[in-house]
Known about the structure:
- This protein has 654 residues and is α+β, with helices and mostly antiparallel strands.
- The relative contact order is 0.09.
Amino acid sequence: MPRHYAIGNGSMLINLDRYTRIRDLYYPYVGQLNHVGGYPCRIGIWADGTFVWLSDDGWRWTPGYVPDSLVTRVLAEHDKLGIALEMNDGVHQRDNIYLKRIRVVNKTEGEREIRLFFTQDFAINENEVGDTAAFYPHNRTVFHYKKNRYFMANGLCGGVGITQYSMGVKRFHLAEGTWRDAEDGHLGGNSIAQGSVDSTIGFRMRLGAGEADFCYYWLSVGDTLEEVKRLDRYVHDNDPGKLLDRVQVYWQRWSNKLDRDYADLPEAVVSMFKQSLLLVRTQTDVHGAIIAANDTDIMNYNRDHYSYMWPRDGALIAYAMSMAGYHETVVPFYQFCAEAITPEGYLHHKYNPDGTVGSSWHPFMVDGEPRLPIQEDETALVLFSLWQLYRQSGNIELCQSLYGSLIRKAAKFMRGYIDTELNLPKPSYDLWEERYGIYTFTASAVYGGLTAAANFCGLFGDKERSERYTKVAESVKSGILQHLWDEESGRFVRGLFRQDGVWVKDMTPESSVYGIFEFGVLPADEARVVSTMRVLREQLTVQTGVGGIARYRNDYYFQRSPDIDRIPGNPWIICTLWMAEWEIECAKSPEDLAAPRQTLEWVTQRALETGVLPEQLDPFDGSPLSVAPLTWSHATYVLAVVKYLNKAGELACR
């Protein structure tokens, strides 16, 4: 199940499902640790002897976020129960506090008592062993803890706090959890439980015919009991409703901090652009890691997840955010990379949010021969995107601070990691982490990274190094044009692979070849680039009503159809947007922007109702596949919009 809502502040991230239930809670890093792990923290309503969970049938849902904000705005109506709920969820922009506001409307003609129930289903530190849940009488809250992780739940309904509570065992022997205890409208009142436990708290309100009132629920998260007590008091002192309103205003100011001319883009595209900025922010840890995705349901497929920082994804996301004017958001990313880079000058496959090296399937030994288990594009793109940040922000102090620790180390590695016979980077794994060889995308990224290194050396007066890196970059460009261009097919190939002792061209149509123009090897309108992109558009367009561009021909990942001629692969958001970027860069008149504008609208239409973008789509019904939200999808949308606006402004001035 994709995550319909993501809310956070850079040290705590909460994912909500379509019923606004907490499904993931990451702390103290975005992406690490998940203290809920995909289980639902249920919300239930009792009225007139009838009980329903928000996930039960009978509800009509109107989903969404408050415009330009990381606060949800969701309407749920239940005709049989005679109740309507207007809900807002948010995480405080500074403090680790989750806030939920529910406006309850009595749609019947009589006065009634209504009870609301909230369950806390934690697996603290990502396991259910040794948790404690307890009622805390000193401030009438319920808190869960293990070691140095504390979670304190509280609320107000009509000015009154928790009226019922119960702690119990869950998912052990025959015990389902205290949420079952709520279904008769009464909780047993057990005040403590230990082991694999959950808790449920209840609130009451009385509403006359047609009346409405507010119920507030909040969760304070910290490392000690004293810390969560302090945060709980902070909510009380500032009023939870007013606090949530301030969260909303903060994010609206953040997403609108620049005064932009959105040219002729439709309102839906503009809204999606701001939503994408905000969702990228939720996946960006304050310590620098930019996480690929935090939808834990992907673990059902391969027992691993996307809650890692891939340097490539991070670099391209940072590039997009810099181009959009959010430089300060991604500065910690480069500091993270400077600390993570190896003494040899390369970055590993992926990293955990705390900076430790992540899991990998790239071997150190193949057929008895040692192999460097890297994707070289990841190292190269960090320098490429850092140069873009400098160009956009002029932050010379940051770049100087990284000159020795990151820039020169990475450049030295790339300069030495060259096949001198081909004038191309030595083999490494491709950007999809699937095959080993020399790839057009990687070679283009290395060209962009070496060019950035030469620019930095020139910026700091290091002339000899600048000339050295420029020379190597130009030799790589020469190698690309000589070995990765195929005259017969009229396009750049995916790459080269070793077979029987010789290099063989991989002729698979591959969307990532867009790197040829993106990273500056050739202009987008150069004849060979134009020919390549036209062939790729023809070969990789999904021939169904869904449309979009596949990663490459016969893409196996989540493959939905063997009909490769019609469906070369599932449509990917980023690959479809790469084609739009090429069309934007080639545009010579305002009329030429019609096609990429349609692509931006297509992406907007393919998002979930809440504006969340997945990694890929089902080619038959357009439903999300793999993880959602995917940070790279949202960042690529941001970059495409910025490029569109820049080009529209340029053409208007001619």
